[in-house]
Design goal:
The protein has helices spanning 13-40, 44-51, 71-78, 81-84, 98-106, 117-125, 169-177, 212-218, 244-249, 251-270, 272-283, 289-306, 318-330, 340-344, 350-353, and strands spanning 55-59, 62-63, 88-92, 94-95, 112-114, 131-134, 142-146, 160-163, 186-189, 204-208, 224-226, 240-242, 356-357, 360-361. By secondary structure, the chain is an alpha/beta fold.
């Protein structure tokens, strides 16, 4: 879904051998550390509860991109945090198709995935049941980009808007709130190359704040970024969901999956380059580590700026869920009526609440 480019350095045979030896030693150290942590990071009784869940599949939102809700899970696995909590986690790359991801979780094929709160409600509208368990921010990633000569969104009336298949609901709501005549826009499907905007093939282009603007900046193209959040449009960033039946049967696993991921988030906030390296190792040739580091830094910056004082990272904002219900209803994005009570029942605040004490993530586990 996101364009990526890279260049690979050539390495001599001697260097490869040396790197292999270092990697082998590092793997042993990591394994030893994980075994040591396993004795310290969880009680024997809770460890047995977690082991009883067996293999736990996590589906990323999109490949191994260094986004919040992806990178910290990859890091938690690499750093041994899941092992330390007796969790057998396997990570699978998602395609970016949120509908497909929701179906796989609802069917129990995987247990966890990253899915926005609004997409979770839309999945439920289609009969696909998930349970929302955390969210990092009410500021979504979806944006609209224009040339810098656009100073008011109403300047776009009658222009050409490019998107990847559908105009994102948040962007549509932003345009409507700004007074744009949305019906006057000529909407066209474009590929994943954001240079169509500076080349003048479209007048505006939808995208993700941590991706396309960084790509365009790297090529020296100046654009104006319009965020739906700045126009009072609700959204979510870094939200996670779980299979409801699995959560009911294994509540300690859900808590400790979140605990390990958040513990890794704290680590990767200070060691972004290292954590992006883990994603690059898994992805292999073609992974643009420099661009993905910018993705990570952009997203954790948004999360830090938007986090309400006194709230725990990952805590669900029920007021935001209520506002999302209003947006989905207003723009007729649901087939069935959705009440606020029905929507809030799709989320469980207890898992995040149970892993914090006085604003601090509890590590090790009980």
């Amino acid at each position: 879904m996101k364009a990526r480019t890279t260049s690979m350095a050539r390495t001599t045979a001697a260097s490869i051998g040396a790197l292999a030896l270092i990697a082998g030693l590092a793997a042993c150290s990591s394994s030893d550390a994980a075994e040591t942590d396993a004795e310290k990071a969880i009680s024997a009784e809770r460890c047995e509860e977690n082991k009883a869940a067996g293999e736990i599949g996590f589906l990323t939102g999109y490949q191994y991109q260094a986004s919040a809700s992806i990178l910290e899970v990859l890091a938690a696995e690499k750093l041994g945090y899941f092992d330390a909590l007796c969790l057998d986690v396997t990570i699978q790359p998602g395609t970016g198709d949120t509908g497909q991801s929701a179906q796989l979780v609802a069917a129990g094929t995987v247990k966890f995935t990253a899915v926005s709160q609004q997409n979770l409600m839309q999945a439920a509208d289609s009969g696909i049941e998930l349970l929302g368990i955390s969210s990092y921010s009410n500021v979504g990633l979806e944006i609209l980009m224009t040339d810098t000569d656009i100073t008011d969104l109403t300047d776009l009336d009658g222009s050409i808007l490019g998107h990847k298949g559908d105009m994102p609901p948040a962007v549509q709501a932003m345009l409507d709130n700004a007074g744009v005549e949305v019906a006057s826009l000529q909407q066209v499907v474009v590929g994943y190359d954001p240079s169509v905007l500076p080349r003048g093939q479209v007048d505006s282009l939808t995208g993700f704040i941590s991706n396309e603007p960084n790509l365009l900046e790297a090529t020296g193209d100046d654009v104006t970024v319009w965020r739906p959040y700045d126009f009072d449009v609700p959204s979510s960033l870094g939200a996670l969901a779980v299979n409801p039946e699995f959560a009911a049967e294994h509540p300690t696993v859900v808590e400790d999956f979140l605990r390990a991921a958040l513990h890794a988030y704290e680590y990767c906030s200070d060691n972004g380059e290292e954590c992006v390296g883990y994603a690059a190792d898994i992805s292999g040739e073609g992974y643009d580590a420099a661009h993905n580091l910018k993705i990570w830094q952009t997203e954790i910056g948004i999360i830090a700026e938007s986090k309400a004082e006194g709230t725990n990272l990952g805590a669900l904002d029920l007021a935001n869920i209520e506002t999302l219900v209003g947006m989905l209803t207003e723009y007729k994005l649901l087939e069935n009526e959705l009440t606020v009570d029905d929507a809030t029942a799709m989320f469980d605040t207890s898992f995040i609440e149970n892993i914090y004490a006085d604003g601090t993530l509890i590590w090790p586990a009980p």
